[in-house]
Amino acid sequence: MVWTAGYGFPRHLGGPMFHADTLGLPNVLARIEAYHARLGHYWTPSPLLVRLAKEGGSFQAYDASRS
After folding, report:
1. Residue 5: what pLDDT?
2. What's residue 67's pLDDT?
3. Residue from 67, 59, 65 nearest 14 by CA
4. Domain coordinates in residue numbering, the chain
5. How many CB atoms sit inside 10 A of residue 25's CB?
């Protein structure tokens, strides 16, 4: 609920994963890795994000492949 209401990612605008796809997962991963280097383990990227960014994938394609 916090992500959809409290952080500016309402579902009708696509949500946080859509926003990440829009920015490009390699860009999102690079920012998270920079925060991780500076701020520690709280900013450890998820294994799925790392995999999709390195494969050139997206959350949308991943979601479609699972249905």
Report:
1. 57
2. 76
3. 59
4. 15-65
5. 24
Q: Which two tokens stand for residue 25?
A: 């997962």
Matching residue, tokens 């409290």? 6
Q: What is the pLDDT along the chain (67 residues), one digit of tens a residue?
A: 555 555 666 667 778 888 899 999 999 999 999 999 999 999 999 999 999 999 999 999 999 998 7
Answer whether 18's CB lies under 8 Å from 4's CB.
no
CB 45, CB 52: distance < 8 Å: no
Among 26, 24, 23, CA closest to 45: 26
Q: How far apart are the first and last CA of the chain?
A: 23
Closest CA to 29 of 48, 15, 49: 49
Find the radius of gyration of the CA atoms of the chain: 13
